[in-house]
Amino acid sequence: MAELKTGGAQGYLRIATEEAFAPPEMMAAYVEVLDGQNVDPGFESLMGFYMRHKSERATNIFRRLQDLGAERLADMDARGIDRQVIGVTAPGVQVLTKDKATALSVLANDQLADACRKHPDRFTGMAAVAPQDPAHAAKELERAVKKLGMRAAVINSHTHGEYLSDQKFWPILEAAEALDVPIYLHPQTPPKAMIAPFLEAGLDGAVFGFGVETGFHALRLIGSGAFDRFPKLQFLLGHMGEALPFWMYRLDYMYGAGLKSKRYPFQPQLKHDVSHYLKHNFHITNSGVAWEPAIKFTQAVLGEDRVLYAMDYPYQCPPEEVEILDRMDMAPATKKKFFQTNAEKLFKL
Known about the structure:
Largest sheet: 8 strands, parallel
CATH architecture: Alpha-Beta Barrel
Low-confidence stretches: none
Distance between the termini: 30 Å
Helix content: 40-55%
CATH class: Alpha Beta
CATH topology: TIM Barrel
Strand order of the largest sheet: 1-2-3-4-5-6-7-8
Strand content: 5-15%
Mean pLDDT: 98
Order of helices and strands: EHHHHEHEHEHEHHHEHHHEHEHH
């Protein structure tokens, strides 16, 4: 394998846009949850593994999540990553009680902002917010953007089984649109009401459950009319859009047929087809999918300005995947958009 270097000699910088961290204080709060009663089965499966399993994968990821310094920078250098766009790992503060969640969102943002100040050319932050308290979340997003220099928010999908399609959460969407920052809708495990058949097959996490749950969340948002209410609002979806670009044709047909026939009277009449919102209100990253055909397909159906590079550090970060993507048969200008300039535009770097 060729040596991977930062600096852009290949014609573009590599900006990785879905990279995770976890404050030690948040990990300590997770321990309390795991040791408590009636533990959410998805949380127990996900963080119970990464925090308590003795495998090399679990212990390495647990350590790397908590580092915002030398080890992370060395890993970036070894993989030729010029910049990481960083947010709290799943499930973030969303598995916690309201008071703990709001306090830890502030702490996480302060810690991440400090690391970004120390390494302004290498780190960019996404703000943690606690949807458990939508008013606080909106104010914390404003603080994080205006005072701390954050360039996005990250929300780790559902919050105790509730979704952003519920209008009680829309102050967060309103704040993001007003601040002109995107929201990264990052996965977590399916909620208790959904997870049982995934768990019994070992498919609850990133292997499949993440994508099902988060794609479902995005469709709930579209179907709620949120983007008719907030037409300039931008979301990011990782993992090649949690497969939604590949479903666009059928989503347009079947969702439109349902609305036309008024099959579900509670559904609002949308101004546009589902594909319109995917093309105008979503950006897609390839996190965890170093696969040229999928990247090119998504560029073709959504537009090459809406597809960004991501690594998914530290969960999936083999250097070989960087080399695979460097070798893509793609016009130099398009490849530069994918690796660099789309991120620079969206995150205002």
